[in-house]
Design a protein that fits this description.
Elements (H helix, E strand, L loop, with lengths): L8 E5 L5 E5 L4 E4 L8 E8 L11 E7 L4 E4 L9 E2 H9 L8
Antiparallel strand pairs: 1-2, 2-3, 4-5, 5-6, 6-7
């Protein structure tokens, strides 16, 4: 998925569950230290949670793996752990039966 504001940034997911960002302008690539247990099936750029507000563009990379886990990656800090969105959804909605992840 191409970044909505920064020209040349392309996010990608692999069959092994890895997530990364390729900068077509510089030819550099970074991969996240957090990855999915199964293939990455979907990804999208979106508004970052308040936890990432120091990012002036306020964008985050959301990915979904075949195991049903949604991860939120901070593009500038892929070496840090991604946020597991499923945990926040379950806590906010007070699920009795926890969704995967």
């Amino acid at each position: 998925a191409w970044h909505p504001y920064r020209e040349g940034l392309l996010s990608f997911g692999t069959e092994e569950g890895r997530v990364g960002i390729y900068d077509a302008n510089s030819g550099t690539m970074n991969t996240s230290s957090t990855y999915h247990e199964k293939s990455v099936y979907s990804m999208s750029w979106g508004y970052a949670p308040t936890k990432f507000k120091e990012d002036p563009l306020k964008t985050a990379l959301y990915t979904c793996g075949g195991e049903g886990t949604i991860l939120c990656h901070k593009p500038k800090e892929l070496g840090n752990a991604a946020v597991k969105v499923n945990s926040y959804i379950a806590a906010e909605n007070k699920y009795k039966n926890q969704p995967p992840g």
